[in-house]
Fold each of these.
Amino acid sequence: MIYDFTYCNPTKIYFGKTALTHLPSELALYGKNILLIYGKNSIKKYGIYDQIISALHQTGKTVVELAGINSNPRYSQVLQGGQLVRENHTDLILAVGGGSVIDCAKGIAASAYYQGDAWQHYWVEQGPIVNPIVPVASVLTMTGTASEMNTGSVITHEEKKLKLGRVFPFPDMTPKFSILNPEFTFTVPHLQMVSGIADIFSHLMEQYFGGTDDCTSDYLLEGVMLSLINASRKAVKNPQDYEARSNIMWCATMGLNKILALSKQQDWEVHMIEHQLGAYTDCPHGIGLAIISPAYYRYIYQHGLPKFVRFAKNIWHIPADGLNDGQIALEGIACLQSFFKELGIPQHLRDIGATEDMLPEIARSTIEGGGYYHMKSDDILQVLKNCF
Ligand code: NZQ
Ligand code: ZN
């Protein structure tokens, strides 16, 4: 059923090959001081930086840059950005990149004017917004997280070895506008592309595997999963396939702008485990998710059996003949794992920099929880061992 909800997501999306032409008119709505933030070198290498700078100059902006944001952004970079915001009286933070850059921008936006320990207040205690926040906007160059249309800010505190996600309140922290040109994603390296695809798939499953009622959101989630599988197979064969890349890009945004989560009981434990895996290994987020997901679902499927049977039948078209429900559910999980393998994603934690002695620490520091089954630290350790 559809339970009572309030939903307000005001991010203005410009989608398509000419989306960037809207940047000057959007910039004109904000004051003149812009903090431009981006990653290591991709936007310069592929010419996006020059296009952004030209729009900024055209609108007479004063630009301060924060470059070099890590994949899995660091809290030290949030602090660095906060200082730049205060020193330069920033009117708008323009993030150009993937989820890491946009998440970092939101972290800066929230914490620049916080008096005290922003890490403790906003990420550890998940406290309310108590200070002025700076508007954020984005130009997306790598697709997966939906950070371009949500309020998530996942930040790694290196010294504390913690990677914590914060979902800030809607609509305060939703980007004011986001520019999505699928052509910008053509140059994303294969591993990052499939990491993004696995991240989208995981977001859909984290929202799907929860609840036992008949809910419209589950049908919508299945539709996006089917589109994503179809488009991903084409994009892996031909990364310049605009139709496929545009579908993947929109699956990503829809996958976590929270519209599909409405009225849904959800899971999110795979993400909790991956975040701590990332804190220890710095692996690409989606790759970690793809390795953990099949092991996790094999561990919990009996607690939500009807939904896993539905997943196997509706997404992977497993025929029911001669199989019991448990077998059908396991076939569905096997298809999921084969799909990730087909995309060229590594299959074990040991392939992505994890070592056996890390596993107990990762399990101990992971936030416990889940959907159909409440995972405790011992359960998490077992799942990690199962996919090591
Ligand atoms: O640093 P550069 O040189 O720009 O290279 C980046 C980076 O190495 C490269 N890249 C981006 N656009 C490119 C490109 N390379 C070539 N051509 C382009 N057009 O891609 C690499 C990965 O970028 P990154 O932003 O790290 O990837 P992603 O978008 O997957 O973001 C991952 C981060 O988002 C968090 C993850 O935990 C992770 O920290 N998440 C954020 C969420 C949210 N805001 O709601 C939810 C997610 O579940 C996730 O946790
Ligand atoms: Zn994710």
Amino acid sequence: MRIILLGPPGAGKGTQAQFICEHYCIPQISTGDMLRAAVKCSTSLGLKAKKIMDAGGLVSDDIIIGLVQERITQADCQNGFLFDGFPRTIPQAEAIDKAGIVIDHVLQIDVPDTEIIQRIAGRRLATQGDPRSDDNEETVKQRLAVYHKQTAPLIDFYKNLPTKQPDHKPAFHIINGLGTIEAIRERIIAVLG
Ligand code: ADP
């Protein structure tokens, strides 16, 4: 099973990703987590990425595509994987397509901006000991703006992919991201089967 999780920052992708991955025994490939690991280890990529992440911008497509391509050659990806936070731009989605990677399901977790801003303020209070340096209100607004400009177009990209790729069309599902974690989980199980 190969799955893409789409949705704005704070939509609950990470939480639901963990559950989906346990349920289907596939690894979670979170480009955000990979970048935060690089930042923690102060690799040259990490040093470059930190500035961009703290400003709410996107790390360059080439770097991200390289990271993911290397990751999916590992043995644990043989039966599939879940992309969390990738692709985030049209060129990233086109790179998946060009590499001949067939995606089975695209899940878009839908949450309105007003709710996102409240949630991230809550997350910041809850994680005071180890807050994410990009979880302040300014940066969240910037991340949301970037999401609408660069990532939201992927919704139409995946809706229209069947005409370009009739044999490999991923099923596209919109999941209502409001409600309890369990309620959202049930909605996801219902569409994935
Ligand atoms: P969230 O979904 O909560 O915004 P992530 O953990 O997915 O957070 O990503 C954090 C930051 O890492 C992003 O704001 C961006 O700077 C960078 N990043 C993560 N994934 C990508 C990607 N696929 N392309 C470009 N930048 C990315």
